[in-house]
């Protein structure tokens, strides 16, 4: 072989090694999104800016929560002030300041209101309790429950969620056993296989029935599966998928080795798992 031929061979080998090297260090393309659900008197509340946790405090868009609780919200641009008022309370909050006024009485909060994506975000517990509500936090489903007697949540404030907490827990359980050790991307992909099957006429139409369809997910039949408490990262991945985060398109199958019978429908490989349409 002449020197030109050896150079071509070396170049091919180098490219193969480079591709293999990159594949070994695949980085998840997904960003973790913790979808926090807020309920008022049992109703899911519609929002255009998801709540988030910062320094141990849950921040929510003030307008959506206040209106769900029957209060009104006003914004003073010059003073960067939010006013929340109902029949009994007049609350003044200031962006970037932990000082507030409740019916003209000064109080100090443990977190300051802030602007996020153009929305005024306020510490949920402080505002809710000031409006005479009880507040509970469910770490398992990432849900805040606010309850107040004597109010009816306006219909326009209600979020018609397409899944139940049971759907979330079953999905998180199967992600736990099928995607153990995988990154967020792998966990979300496995969750979406289940959800794609729910939508497909070729499979059952509920999360539970898809998981327990005979011969499909063997780990679901092992002792303890039905009582399994999923770790946080699996609940987060399941909730991301339920809220529409999809990284595998319409895939209905996955396996830890190639399906020879489905080679034509191969979609992508994620951390050793092969996904097929």
What spatial order of strands do you see in the largest sheet?
5-6-7-8-9
Runs in which pLDDT lies below 50 for 5 or more consecutive residues are: 9-27
Shape: elongated
- Stated plainly, the CATH topology of the largest domain is called Copper Amine Oxidase, Chain A, domain 1
Please tell me how large the radius of gyration is.
Answer: 25 Å
Compressed to H and E, one letter per element, the order equals HEEEEHEEEEEEEHEEHHHHEEE
Percent of residues in helices comes to 25-40%
Oligomeric state as shown? single chain
For the record, what CATH class of the largest domain applies?
Alpha Beta
Query: What does the largest sheet look like?
Result: 5 strands, antiparallel
In what range is the share of β-strand residues?
15-25%
CATH architecture of the largest domain: 2-Layer Sandwich
Total strands: the figure is: 16
- What class do helices, strands and sheet pairing give? alpha+beta
């Amino acid at each position: 072989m002449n020197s030109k031929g050896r150079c071509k061979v070396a170049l091919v080998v180098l490219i193969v090694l480079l591709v293999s090297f990159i594949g070994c260090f695949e980085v998840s393309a997904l960003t973790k999104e913790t979808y926090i659900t807020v309920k008022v008197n049992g109703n899911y509340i519609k929002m255009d800016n998801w709540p988030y946790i910062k320094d141990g405090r849950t921040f929510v868009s003030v307008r959506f929560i206040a209106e769900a609780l029957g209060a009104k919200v006003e914004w003073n641009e010059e003073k960067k002030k939010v006013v929340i008022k109902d029949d009994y309370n007049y609350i003044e909050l200031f962006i970037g300041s932990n000082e507030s006024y409740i019916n003209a009485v000064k109080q100090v909060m443990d977190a300051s209101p802030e602007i996020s994506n153009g929305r005024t975000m306020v510490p949920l517990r402080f505002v809710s309790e000031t409006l005479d509500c009880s507040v509970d936090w469910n770490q398992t489903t990432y849900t805040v429950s606010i309850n107040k007697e004597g109010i009816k949540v306006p219909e326009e404030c209600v979020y018609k969620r397409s899944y139940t907490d049971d759907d979330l827990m079953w999905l998180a359980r199967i992600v736990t056993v099928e995607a153990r050790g995988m990154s967020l991307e792998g966990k979300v992909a496995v969750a979406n296989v289940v959800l794609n099957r729910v939508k497909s006429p070729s499979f059952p139409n509920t999360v539970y029935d898809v998981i327990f369809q005979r011969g499909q997910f063997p780990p679901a039949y092992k002792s303890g599966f039905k009582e399994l408490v999923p770790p946080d990262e699996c609940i987060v991945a399941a909730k991301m998928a339920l809220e529409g985060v999809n990284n595998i398109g319409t895939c209905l199958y996955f396996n830890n080795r190639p399906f020879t019978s489905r080679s034509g429908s191969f979609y992508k490989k994620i951390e050793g798992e092969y996904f097929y349409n």
